[in-house]
User: What shape does this take?
Amino acid sequence: MPECGCGTEQADKLEKKTLIMLLSINAVMFVAESVLGWLAQSTGLIADSLDMFADAAVYGISLYAVGKGVLRQAKAARLSGLLQVALGSGALFEVFRRSVYGSEPQSALMLSVGAVALLANIICLVLISRHKEGGVHMRASMIFSANDVIANLGVIVSGVLVAAMGSRLPDLIVGAIISIVVIRGGIRILRDARETRESATC
Assistant: This one.
C-alpha cells in the first residue's frame, strides 16, 4: 500500500510540474498574440489569443484539481468547459463585428505569429500527452492543446491566402472556424465532466 500512495504522489507532482509549464507558455502567448493580433487586424490571431487565455485558465484550474477527488476534478473540468464556450462565443462575436465594420489583416504578421504559436502549442501537446491516462481535468487540458495546434495551422493557412488573394475573407473564415472549434471543445469537456460525475456518484 505505501508504494501505491508513493506512486500517486509522484504522479501528482509530475502533473503539477507539467501544468505549471503549460500555464506559463499559454499566458505568455496570450499576451503576445492578443497584442500582435490587434496590430495585424487578424480575427484568426485574436480568436487564437482568446483560446490561449482559455487554456491558461484551464491549466490553472486543472492545477488546483491535481490530487483532489474525482468529483472535484469533474467540477474543475466543468468550469474549464464553461470558460471555453464563453471565450469561443466572444471570439465569434469579434469575427462578426469585423465582418461588418471591416479590417485589413496583415498577412506577414499573421504568418510569423502563427508559426511561433504553433511551435508553442506543439510543445504543450507533447507535454500534456504524457498524462493522457490521467483524470478528467487532464483530458480536458489535452483537448485544449490539440485544438490549439489545429487553430494555429488555420491561422498560417489564412495568412497565406490573405497574401495570395488580397482579401480579408480567409482571415474571417478561419477566425470563425477557430471560434467554433473552441466552443465545440468546451461542449466536449462539459459532456466528459458530466459523465465522470455521474459515474462517480453511481
